[in-house]
Amino acid sequence: MAQPTNRDYYKILGITAKTPKKDIKKKYRELAKKYHPDTNQGSKEAEDKFKIVSEAYEVLSNALKRKEYDRQRSYKTQSRAQPSGGRPAWDREPPGGFGRRPPPGGNEQYYQEPFAAEPEPVDPNMPTSGFDLQFIIDVPLPIVALGGVIPYSYEKYVKCQDCDGSGMQGDDECPVCQGKQLIVRSVTLNVKIPPGVANQYTLAIIKEGGEGKNGGPPGELFLKINTLPHPKFKRIKNDIISEVIISRKLADEGGTLIVETLNGSKTIQVEEGTLIGEELLIPGEGAAISWGKKRGALIIKFNIEEDDS
Predict the structure, then answer these.
(1) Are residues 137 and 212 in the same domain?
(2) pLDDT tens-digit profile of 142-161?
């Protein structure tokens, strides 16, 4: 992962975020030749610039490093709009403008490296990451207990198709997104629910948040699971409780009974002389344990019908 930096690598190489890869390499070669120590008679200033140009090219020519760098730039750009007292700790860079502190005993105003990043207006073409989104997803108890896939619809910013995310149509502002590049649309996602997931657990779904701008990465989607009540089942950890009403005759004499399970039905044996509140444990018919294949128990709790007499 790229280390945080205040250097503007795009400015150092004299390019923009939309510059083609072949042109980035061409520009780097020009600057590398210009500042190479061998062509500058061992100049320390030229050597420093050569190192920074090489550093900029190393990041911008590598897709993963560039993506991380663009994300860091996006965060820092957004934080500039906050009052200084409200800036998050990760955005408090040391003095000097490069994420480095001045030499001990040195005067900060005279400490400056080549290509120092000067305060400037936010570049509207700079890649900006999309918004993270958080919602609550209602999931039926059987799916929470055994896992499954359910559709989930939500609204988020997506790229405007009328202008292909540029914000412009020819020389005019796109009338659909009004130059914002993004529009709000409802999308549907098939969400995979892990077997045996806990109620109120939050699923993190990568890159399904709001769309980014200017090639910036999308945000993340966070879904908090809300288990819907079930008319017949209750969950206690990995066990499922089911209250079953039986006749007085079956309770007194015993016999077989078909009961509903999370994913079907099962025939059980009711013992002779069963009393109200007695329980029958059926192993392996409860909720999944630790997102795996093993399951807890289905616990049948008997209730007995009142005699008509």
Answers:
(1) yes
(2) 999 999 999 999 999 999 99
86 inside domain: yes
Residue 26's alpha-carbon distances to 19, 23, 98, in angstroms, are 11, 5, 25
Strands 148-159 and 239-246: unpaired
**What is the distance, to the nearest Å, from the Cα of residue 196 to the centroid of all Cα atoms in its chain?**
21
The helix (H) or strand (E) run that includes residue 308 is none
CA distance 287 to 262: 8
* One-letter identity of residue 176: V
Are 256 and 224 contained in the same domain? no
What gap in Å lies between CA 70 and CA 169, rounded to an integer? 26
Q: Indicate the residue type of 268.
A: I
Supply the range of the domain harboring residue 96: 9-110
DSSP secondary structure, 22-34, as one string = HHHHHHHHHHHHH
Task: Name the pTM for this structure.
Answer: 0.59
Rounding to the nearest 10 degrees, give the CA dihedral for residues 34, 38, 39, 41.
120
